[in-house]
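Hello, quick one for you while I still have it in my head. My current little project is about how a certain protein chain folds up. You're getting the sequence in one-letter code plus the fold written as tokens. Would you mind checking whether the tokens look sensible for this chain? Here's the protein in full, and shout if anything looks odd to you:
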Amino acid sequence: MRVKITHLLSALIILVLTAGPAPAAEPPRSGHAVFDRAVQLVVREFYDVSALDRFSDAVRREVEDPQSPVNAKSSEARVDAAIETILASLQASHVGHFRPDTIDYFELADIFRFAIRDDRRRLFPPQGEVTYPGIGMVARQRDGAWFASDVYDGSPAARAGILAGDEIMTIDGMPYREIASFEDKVGKAVEVKLRRSDGAEPISVKVQVERLRPLPMFERAIRDSARLIQHDGQKIGYVRLWTLAAPRSMEIVAEALAKGPLKDANGLVLDLRGRWGGGSSDAAELFLGDTPPFRLIQRDGEDILANVRWNRPVIAIIDEGTRSGLEVFAYALKANGIPLVGARSAGALLAGRAYLLPDDSLLEIAVSDAVIGDDVRLEGIGVQPDVSVPFSLPYAAGRDGQLDAAVEEMRRILARG
């Protein structure tokens, strides 16, 4: 009997506006508008009232410490550090502070576009569409160096041959900056100097800068990730679900399976190593649902997919990027006996909402708990893979042991018939 994951949230990243229990007493004010507004919002909106005493103590230490960075003349960086400190005291996911010099800011602004709808035209003129200049690559810092961690399928970075694990040394001869490196360069090519292995000579690639719209970019990346892997005469499909927050995420996967590049696959490797969660809690029904596939055929012969179901073998890859709605997805698959390969998921299953602070930075706050079934919580716990495969990012040179292990496991399943 298949287990269905229902009665959770229709969208884990969608925003909860109902009032909770009475808030704790307001912590002391610092006199800095951004810091104080962040404190006020947490006290008013954070889902777990029992954590607010701990939070207030952290605020009080920041405000009363003579060496505290919080005062009206503090630099932006020092105030950011103070906000990060007090948010860390909440010990919860879906809590963070983001500035517009980061890719996270723009991606979250698009995901939470309805929460900031009154300010979108002002922030992103003229039409209020969230965009930023970039090449479709996210990098993480390790020991002072930047390494490409996510190269979106079909992006300029992917087309230029940048691989996950590449050390990003400079952009046009200057240190890498997530947004500033590409400002005023849309439509132009930048020179990315990178190192593919430790100690190797740097190599340079030219990459076209585009004005990226986060959610459409994610949809394109999902579509462009779909491919067949030929192995021992078997056709193994692969698709990466970068996020569930984009409106057409699951529709694109369904199309690829029903009539796209994956329609002839004997088995499927579903990559849940995403950037963000979000989406409907019943997304896994594409692989678990009992209703038959269903399509409508028009007079001209065009068919419209109404109900796609994948009934062939499937394996999923998870890691710390599998969070929020993607964790519900992974949990549902595992509960139904579908193997998971990779590393433990993020353990980040709450519902978040974004708020604008006075300086137009974004504050994300967890506003609701999330429970699967009657009492299953993944927050702080995550989902464990059935086949554990570590992944080391620096200088990976595009090698992906987790994907290799998933393909090998699928090959064994298909060989058993």
The two ends are 21 Å apart (CA to CA). Confidence is low (pLDDT under 50) at residues 1-20.
